[in-house]
Amino acid sequence: MHHFSYKNGSLHAEDVSLTSIVDEVGTPFYCYSAATLRRHYRVFADAFASQDALVAFSVKSLSNLAVLRLLAKEGAGADVVSGGELMRAQKAGIPGPRIVFSGVGKTREEMASALDADIYQVNVESVPELRALNDVALACGKQAPIALRVNPDVSAGAHNKISTGRAEDKFGIAWSQAHEVFTLAASLDGINVAGIDVHIGSQITDLAPFERAFGKVTNLVRELRNAGHKITRLDLGGGLGIPYQHSSDASVPPHPSVYADMIKKIAGSLDLQLIFEPGRMIAGNAGILVARVIYVKQGAARKFLILDAAMNDLIRPALYDAWHDIVPIDEPEVGAGKVLYDLVGPVCESGDTFARDRPLSPTAEDALIAFLTAGAYGAVQSSEYNSRPLIPEVLVEGDKFSVIRKRPSIEEMLAKEEIPDWL
Ligand code: LLP
């Protein structure tokens, strides 16, 4: 469910026509719907309303300050993975006690700022990290509240590059070492072990791997409690997938309420506070990428739509072979027919291909198109490759819109670099 639809023959974000945004900001740009962001957050949070749960939005999925402020106002916490994301969350008004800090490689500086912000929990992924955090906490005269992230050795069937819960992945404490690491953590004066954390991957559309991982982890909670550990929190990570391809019956993810029921069944009797780190599920459908066709090129064997957006703006198709539905901004006439196009960007790599043989209504030079479901892992993964400035982000609410990250000029992009005076 999202708020991008045709009105009077033209694609709108809520009540704003995308062509009116194009007139003001040019192309390409990302556009987010406030109503969709709120709705997805609410659907997820409401699914856990009867359980003691903290919903910490995964900032890495869409980290614009305005989006974080909007979610903060809904009551969301934040899952951060760097000092930069921590600062974003704080700037957006998310209080420390609603922030969890994940990631395999936190530096001592990041740990110190997390403790300084009195965050709710640091998710610790290794013994060296545990010892470093203990040192940092003692030096600050604090105790660090932590969960230990365990690796349940469960394959989630998501894309290889975004699976995180298998024994060979870099994430979490090896299952066989979990008991001894909890014992070590309990012996450190700068550490307060509050819980267990698990995250098995992203874009998972099947409940079964979650059930397997959560079943293993709740058994571990029982074992640890029997061994005298006080486990009060269970962080179940993010990972619930979303539909990307509406024209096919590609796997439809479970509704958050079904996910919540499954978790209640597995963990309901354990009197644990639950923590969730959803990203894609909240941000994915809430954003689109709008681009213009620069040229229509007939190749030897294929017809190309060459766009002004490229892999540096939306890297998901190049990196994960990801599918995004693509629609024209001007609604096609009924019975317009379809042509097969390859949609590509101007970057000098064949990998700069968004889609191959995509059936679209006949499309001419200068036409505007939109990539749907581009809110999560879209803008945040963009780069200036080929010296293309980062593209703007726009937030729509009802009939108004604001540019929430402006397009830098080429001069501004280059201003970050310096030529030494010895050259
Ligand atoms: N928690 C942890 C510890 C994570 O590593 C992630 C995602 C999340 C939560 C949020 O997961 P979500 O609810 O969004 O599935 N760039 C890739 C996705 C990378 C996901 C990384 N970790 C993509 O474009 O598909």
What does this structure look like?
It is built from twelve helices and 21 strands. The protein has 423 residues and is an alpha/beta fold. Strand 8, helix 6 (127-140) and strand 9 (144-151) form a beta-alpha-beta unit. The radius of gyration is 23 Å and the shape is globular. The structure holds ligand LLP.
* Tally of distinct domains: 2
Outline? globular
Which stretches are poorly predicted, pLDDT < 50 over at least 5 residues? none
Helix count, per DSSP?
12
Q: CATH-wise, what's the superfamily of the largest domain?
A: Alanine racemase
Amino-to-carboxy terminus distance? 56 Å
User: What's the rounded overall pLDDT mean?
Assistant: 96
Q: How would you concisely characterize the structure shown here?
A:
This protein is an alpha/beta fold and 423 residues long. The chain is 28% helix and 25% strand. Strand 17 and strand 18 (353-360) form a beta hairpin.
